[in-house]
Design a protein that fits this description.
With 321 residues, the chain is an alpha/beta fold. The strands form two sheets. Strands 2-3-4-1-5 form a five-stranded parallel sheet.
Length: 321
Amino acid sequence: MDDYSPWTEKYRPHTLGDIIGQKEIVESLKSFVKERNMPNLLFTGPPGCGKTTATLALAKEMFGADYKASTLELNASDERGIDVVRGHIKDFSRMVSMSGHPFKIIFLDEADSLTPDAQHALRRTMEVNAGITRFILSCNYSSKIIEPIQSRCSVFRFKQLENKDILGLIDRICEAEKLKCDKEARDAIAYICDGDMRKAVNILQGAALLTKHITVDTVYRTSSRAKPAEVKQMIELAYSGKFAMARKKLEALMIEYGMSAEDVLSAVYKEVQAIDIPDLKKVEIVDALGEINFRVVEGANERIQLEALLAKIVLFGSKKE
């Protein structure tokens, strides 16, 4: 979990043994600590699944009190040009560790934001200084990392966290912070965060700022998400041909919950599977969702595109099988 709020840092696991949901990866990292040696690593996986936490825990267990002197942490989304690779990274990788450890660690978070030129420069730096420096790269999409870098790293693919892992941390935080969280609220947080532990902690903290008794209504309002039942109702209204009512429901969701177009599209995508309609119609709706999402991302008018989606769903419902 990144440091996006005080709680994400407060409840971050500090050792490899505290990391949940990534048992196989943790065992491999523990073996590196035991051997006091490691290859270059590439961590890839969805947001909030523990990539940054695993890196920091590994470095702390590897170097102990010398952790800060032996680790360089950079966020590649902020510093992603070739000048950073040729300057800061190259200089640090050349230096021999002054703490007595055989190597240092350079951690590049969000490495998939590095430009192609920067990645090619990084490849050569990794090769030349392999004896005294190890690199750990973290990214959401390994396909954006050039093949020469991937071939120089051991790739660890982090999986999305399960609901039981999310709920376990929510319960621990509620107990520590003396919060009362209803079961429906806990389930709502797990549903909204979609396997992202960092998002779950931030949602819980946002709700706790309003009240010590967290209900499902509090969760959905503070996270700017609509209840699944309301989204499902909007889709069913459109599919049954009641365009005006579906349009009115869409307006209520956007105003009441402050949802963006992409939030609405994501919610509709999740709820399409729960609608009692033929599978072929679900396919048509998902296909339309992809087209509308592309238009929104490209800068089209959000309101018009969402109403166009409702119109498409009306047409899908009016066609006979």
